[in-house]
């Protein structure tokens, strides 16, 4: 054997030696390790260990790839893909899983927990994944770090990097597409995007529209063409890169309403599995905002821009002056579609829709922007067959009615939506098809009649017009309940005009002063004459009063003509010009003669009334002073309209029913006579916070006596946030169903009258069922509620108020100035007598309570009113109408005209206070004396009507200021009757002096009213007027117009041409062009409107500039240019308008805008009460202009907005722009600074009562805000959308001890505020008299 081999005898000894040597070495190593731990520092041990492993690395054949969750600030695409991919590789050996599901997901999501391992096999080799989470030790504020470790054999490195990981990415993308829930994005739903696809600027709902290409009623060839084009687009990514074009495609869908444009968009989204972004150009004010919005959209998406022809802010480049980033322009839009910005994002479809392709700018229509033009026309035979298959299940054409229907469809213009609506009317196929036949025949008959009557219409209209003109020439004897109001208004104007000392007025001063004297003598007994005439129904007195009214109107027109002549005369005042242009002798002669005739007639009328009423007339100044000196006891709001008495049990009962509702749709009926409080009960339930939390969707619909099913559905959609422009009935119902699908909703149908409820059955069939959805119906007719599905056990019949509750409600109103307590014991008996006559009806009690609020607290005055109430009841046993009539009779003269203004508005119309006040000022209804502010006087008139409970409050601002209102239907009955009798307004529009502008106006209404005083837009909220050219051209023929309100109107004729004609209306005192599109500039013809007191061009986004002649309107009191996104500045010289009281939307000119008005000019506007400022950069405030506001001593309300501002210097400039110390209310929005302005402190603003801070970057209040030995007098505070502002409730209360209202929303950093969900929807905190706080049921401005 070889010598180096162990022998058998030696083996045990050798093994023993080896074990002995190993044990000795191990002991030595343990000793060395123990010594190292005891004597070597931790850092040295680590260094030695690292050096050892570096010099002698362990041998391994595996490679580990670490895949972190983040790559810098960006998410790691591989990590996200691995997380999704590994869900499919979970094996039964896995011990811990994470399971979750969001509210919008349809399935559970399962993923591995930290530390778990997952094995995978790829191309016959094994890989191991492990999910690792680590928590940082030294930074407890940092979140845990997550990563995946992928381990495999080193020899497969190239395969893993080049094939496996791309495979994981591809499979993850497939899984995402399979699980993807399509989204419909809109900017009106902030912070509502769970999956993050909206990128912060968008909110979303799941897009669950059922439309597909299989259900679309399109021609097969057209359908195939669209699908082929979409498929070709999807697979052409490399082609687009090759030719250098952005990977996107534009589609234009055009055709009549109801032809399926929206359904086609949904079908495309479902086919491609693309999200949809609903882009509303009307809400975007500049190119930069548009750019930010579009950049925040994701790839694989569809942009939808509906009704592109109605987007008034899209300006034609021919009318503009190139691209500017400060406004939204057509060039800006086009630049994003195929300009430099078009490369930002891939795989996008852009869909435009329009009903009128011919109205679009050619620049939009060319390829590259709208690549494919798809005409969706009326229903075809193939479309009908598909609809019959979808709706009725008829798969072939063998039905006996098919042939007749096909013939009718070929000869009738009917949309697919209309056909679908008819097919939905019955589940029986025969009945549905027969109904469709009847419908098509009616359509054909209407069309034939229109063709036949086309030629005869003109002759018929001419005949009717001739009759109308003949009627206009006849004497009209209308009863007059408001002659005293007409006299009051005229005397106010006459006194003001005589004080001006104009030349032509002075020519006839004797006649005017005689007229003034006669009318002042008559004024004291005109109210009694009105009441006597109404009660006696004597036609002689009725005719006398009507003649007097018409004479006064004529005298007022003569007075206005004299003023105009004087203005023209002033322009020719130079002597040599008088030689060239001699005085108008014909005007002087005619005017003098007519004034003498009017005076003689009025004197005879005065004597006639005196004899008729047996009232002696004495020329005693004390009598005149008594009559003229009466004024309202309360000028501002006194009564809190939110107070309700005796209805708590009613609301609790209905709320309990709603909470118990589960299956189907619960129908609740609130039934009772008018004035019983049905609507009030429904409103209390509707606005209750508990109900807000229970129902995901709430809709309130006021059902007028004259309504259509389409109007009802549009009203429902408006409450859901959808304007529904251009949709027909079928599409409207489908939209409603889509919005409500899967939601618990509450629908209130208020004041339903008609017993024909077929419309309701059709709507109800289309509403989703279940989940506790409910409907509340208020009606006076129990039969109506039963037909609408209310069961007997769900009827609620409000009871009359008890005697105690009636007296309590009366006291809260009649004695509101003393907190609802009667401080005069001698008035209690007569007060209770008045209340008893109201029979427990809340509306009657409120009406008489509001009337008594303005009565002097004397027994004689209250007894006189009680007797008058008794007399009214003797003629009309309806206590509500009697109380309303008496309240109207007792109105001051000037308030009667204001009250009759409500007759112009449609039923249940919500009216803005601003429009009413501007109208009243423009027509002179508001008495203004002794230099008093006209705006203040107008608002006092409004308060006079609301305090009397003749007008209902709808919306309030955060500080309880009323902003919108409406009138009860019983009040409307009274006001329409009074307006008809006084020729103030008539529903047929004939022979009256005031008209509401609406789409269905007739030409004869204007021709027959050559002396109209006011034409106003009276559309309901979210609606617009569409005015034909034949109507608009007649506006300028109303030569004595004082008020012209064209707001929210679209005109068939060019707006510029209409405004040129309006320039001839030199009597105009109020002109509103608010939200009138497309207003780009004011023509020079308007320069003649020197009598303008109010000019409103707000919300005219295309308005580029105001003409310089604006500064020559010396009588201007209100100038509103707010929300005019394209307006850069107002013209220089604005400081000359010394009578200006309201200036909104003022944007100061920059230093390089030499024609613009600088902020320093505001120093001269010493009568300003309301000022709205808009800043975008520091250059708009010069260093010597920071004191421009400090001496505006009349200023009560100041608004400062820094929306879309840029540059850090603006913060420093605004910080020095001190407001006047007597400021009452301040609004600060979009302020860019981190801390509030230094002047926002109690020492600088010691009189401030109302403060609103919204949006912007404010994180904390400046230290001066907390005062130094001073406290705020603020009573109401609003904080809105201040995501970074940190405030403590205790600190705030200490510095604002007078605080009684706090409205806070979207402010997550507010601490310990007593408002639920203050970081999201928020609410209102109110401090009551008993010093306890509670959260109000809803925000004031809901």
From TrEMBL:
Domain of life per record: Eukaryota
Identification of the protein by name: Uncharacterized protein
Lineage: Eukaryota, Viridiplantae, Streptophyta, Embryophyta, Tracheophyta
């Amino acid at each position: 054997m070889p010598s180096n081999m162990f022998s058998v005898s030696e083996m045990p000894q050798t093994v023993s030696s080896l074990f002995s040597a190993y044990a000795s070495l191990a002991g030595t190593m343990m000793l060395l390790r123990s010594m190292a731990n005891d004597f070597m520092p931790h850092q040295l041990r680590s260094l030695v260990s690292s050096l050892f492993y570096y010099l002698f690395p362990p041998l391994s054949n595996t490679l580990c790839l670490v895949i972190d969750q983040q790559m810098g600030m960006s998410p790691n695409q591989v990590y996200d893909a691995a997380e999704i991919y590994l869900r499919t590789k979970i094996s039964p050996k896995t011990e811990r899983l994470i399971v979750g599901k969001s509210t919008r997901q349809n399935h559970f999501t399962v993923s591995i927990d930290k530390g778990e391992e997952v094995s995978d096999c790829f191309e016959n080799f094994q890989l191991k994944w492990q999910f690792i989470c680590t928590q940082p030790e030294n930074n407890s504020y940092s979140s845990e770090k997550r990563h995946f470790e992928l381990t495999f054999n080193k020899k497969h490195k190239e395969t893993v990097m080049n094939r496996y990981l791309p495979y994981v990415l591809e499979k993850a993308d497939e899984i995402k597409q399979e699980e993807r829930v399509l989204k419909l994005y809109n900017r009106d739903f902030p912070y509502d995007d769970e999956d993050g696809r909206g990128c912060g600027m968008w909110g979303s709902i799941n897009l669950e529209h059922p439309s597909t290409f299989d259900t679309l009623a399109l021609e097969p060839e057209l359908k195939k063409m669209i699908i082929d084009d979409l498929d070709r687009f999807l697979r052409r990514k490399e082609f687009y890169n090759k030719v250098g074009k952005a990977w996107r495609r534009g589609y234009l869908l055009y055709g009549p309403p109801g032809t399926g444009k929206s359904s086609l968009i949904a079908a495309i989204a479902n086919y491609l599995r693309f999200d949809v972004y609903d882009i509303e150009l009307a809400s975007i004010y500049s190119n930069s905002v548009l750019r930010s919005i579009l950049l925040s959209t994701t790839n694989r998406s569809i942009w939808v821009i509906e009704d592109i022809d109605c987007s008034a802010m899209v300006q034609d480049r021919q009318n503009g002056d190139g691209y500017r980033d400060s406004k939204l322009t057509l060039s800006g839009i086009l630049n994003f579609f195929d300009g430099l910005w078009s490369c930002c994002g891939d795989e996008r479809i852009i869909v435009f829709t329009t009903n009128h392709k011919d109205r679009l700018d050619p620049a939009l229509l060319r390829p590259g922007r709208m690549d494919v033009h798809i005409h969706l026309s009326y229903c075809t035979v193939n479309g009908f067959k598909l609809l019959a298959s979808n709706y009725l299940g008829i798969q072939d054409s063998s039905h006996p009615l098919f042939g007749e229907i096909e013939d009718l469809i070929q000869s009738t213009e009917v949309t697919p939506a209309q056909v679908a609506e008819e097919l939905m009317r019955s589940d029986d196929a025969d009945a549905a098809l027969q109904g469709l036949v009847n419908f098509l025949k009616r359509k054909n008959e209407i069309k034939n009649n229109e063709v036949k009557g086309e030629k005869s219409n003109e002759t018929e209209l001419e005949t009717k017009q001739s009759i109308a003109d003949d009627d206009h020439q006849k004497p009209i004897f209308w009863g007059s309940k408001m002659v005293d109001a007409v006299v009051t208004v005229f005397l106010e104007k006459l006194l003001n005009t005589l004080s001006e000392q104009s030349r032509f007025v002075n020519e006839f001063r004797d006649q005017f002063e005689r007229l003034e004297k006669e009318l002042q003598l008559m004024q004291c007994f005109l109210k009694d004459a009105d009441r006597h005439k109404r009660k006696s129904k004597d036609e002689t007195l009725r005719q006398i009063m009507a003649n007097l009214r018409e004479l006064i109107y004529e005298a007022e027109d003569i007075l206005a003509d004299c003023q105009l002549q004087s203005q023209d005369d002033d322009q020719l005042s130079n002597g040599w010009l008088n030689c060239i242009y001699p005085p108008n002798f014909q005007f002087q002669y005619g005017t003098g003669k007519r004034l003498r005739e009017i005076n003689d007639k009025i004197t005879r009328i005065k004597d006639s009334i005196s004899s008729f009423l047996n009232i002696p007339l004495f020329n005693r100044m004390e009598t005149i002073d008594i009559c003229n000196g009466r004024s309202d006891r309360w000028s501002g709001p006194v009564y809190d309209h939110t107070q309700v008495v005796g209805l708590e049990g009613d609301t609790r009962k209905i709320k309990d029913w709603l909470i118990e509702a589960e299956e189907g749709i619960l129908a609740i009926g609130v039934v009772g006579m008018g004035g019983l409080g049905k609507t009030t009960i429904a409103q209390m339930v509707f606005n209750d916070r508990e109900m807000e939390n229970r129902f995901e969707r709430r809709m309130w619909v006021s059902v007028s006596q004259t309504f259509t099913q389409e109007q009802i559905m549009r009203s429902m959609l408006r409450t859901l946030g959808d304007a529904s422009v251009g949709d027909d009935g079928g599409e409207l119902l489908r939209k409603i169903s889509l919005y409500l699908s899967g939601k618990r909703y509450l629908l209130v149908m208020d004041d339903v009258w008609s017993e024909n409820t077929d419309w309701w059955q059709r709507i109800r069939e289309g509403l989703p069922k279940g989940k506790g959805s409910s409907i509340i119906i208020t009606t006076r007719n129990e039969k109506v509620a039963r037909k609408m599905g209310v069961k007997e056990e769900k009827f609620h019949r409000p009871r009359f108020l008890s005697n105690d509750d009636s007296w309590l409600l009366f006291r809260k109103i009649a004695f509101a100035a003393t907190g609802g307590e009667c401080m005069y014991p001698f008035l209690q008996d007569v007060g209770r007598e008045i209340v008893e006559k109201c029979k427990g009806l809340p509306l009657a009690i409120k009406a008489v309570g509001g009337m008594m609020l303005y009565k002097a607290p004397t027994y004689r005055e209250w007894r006189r009113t009680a007797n008058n109430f008794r007399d009214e009841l003797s003629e009309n046993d309806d206590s509500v109408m009697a109380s309303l009539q008496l309240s109207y009779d007792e109105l001051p003269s000037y308030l009667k005209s204001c009250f009759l203004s409500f007759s112009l508005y449609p039923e249940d119309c919500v009216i803005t206070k601003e429009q009413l006040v501007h109208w009243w000022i423009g027509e002179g209804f508001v008495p203004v004396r002794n230099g008093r502010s006209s705006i203040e006087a107008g608002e006092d008139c409004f308060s006079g009507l609301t305090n009397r409970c003749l007008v209902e409050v709808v919306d309030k601002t955060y500080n309880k200021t009323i902003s919108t209102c409406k009138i009860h239907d019983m009040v409307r009955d009274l006001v329409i009757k009074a307006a008809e009798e006084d020729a103030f307004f008539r529903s047929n529009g004939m022979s009256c002096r005031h008209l509401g502008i609406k789409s269905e106006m007739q030409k004869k209404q204007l021709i027959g009213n050559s002396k109209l005083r006011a034409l106003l837009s009276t559309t309901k909220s979210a609606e617009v007027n569409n005015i034909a050219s034949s109507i608009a051209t007649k506006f300028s023929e109303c030569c004595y117009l004082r008020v012209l309100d064209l707001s929210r109107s679209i005109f068939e004729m060019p707006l510029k041409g209409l405004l040129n004609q309006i320039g001839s209306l030199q009597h105009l005192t109020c002109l509103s062009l608010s939200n009138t599109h497309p207003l780009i500039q004011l023509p020079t013809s308007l320069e003649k409107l020197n009598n303008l007191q109010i000019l409103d061009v707000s919300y005219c986004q295309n308005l580029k500039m105001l003409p310089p002649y604006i500064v020559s309107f010396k009588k201007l009191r209100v100038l509103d240019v707010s929300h005019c996104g394209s307006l850069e500045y107002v013209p220089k010289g604005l400081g000359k308008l010394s009578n200006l009281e309201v200036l909104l939307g003022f944007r100061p000119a920059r230093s390089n805008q030499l024609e613009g008005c600088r902020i320093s000019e505001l120093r001269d506007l010493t009568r300003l009460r309301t000022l709205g400022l808009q800043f975008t950069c520091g250059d708009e405030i010069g260093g010597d202009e920071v004191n421009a506001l400090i001496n505006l001593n009349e200023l009560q309300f100041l608004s400062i907005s820094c929306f879309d501002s840029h540059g850090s210097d603006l913060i420093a400039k605004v910080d020095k722009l001190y407001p006047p110390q007597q400021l009452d209310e301040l609004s600060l929005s979009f302020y860019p600074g981190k801390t509030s302005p230094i002047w926002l402190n109690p020492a600088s603003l010691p009189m401030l009562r109302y403060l609103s801070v919204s949006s912007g970057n404010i994180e904390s209040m400046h230290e001066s805000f907390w005062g130094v030995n001073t406290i705020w007098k603020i009573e109401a505070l609003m904080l809105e959308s201040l995501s970074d502002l940190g405030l403590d409730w205790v600190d705030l209360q200490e510095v604002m001890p007078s605080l009684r209202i706090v409205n806070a929303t979207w402010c997550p950093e507010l601490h310990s505020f007593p408002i639920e969900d203050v970081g999201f929807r928020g609410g209102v905190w109110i401090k009551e008299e008993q010093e306890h706080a509670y959260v109000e049921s809803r925000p004031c401005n809901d």
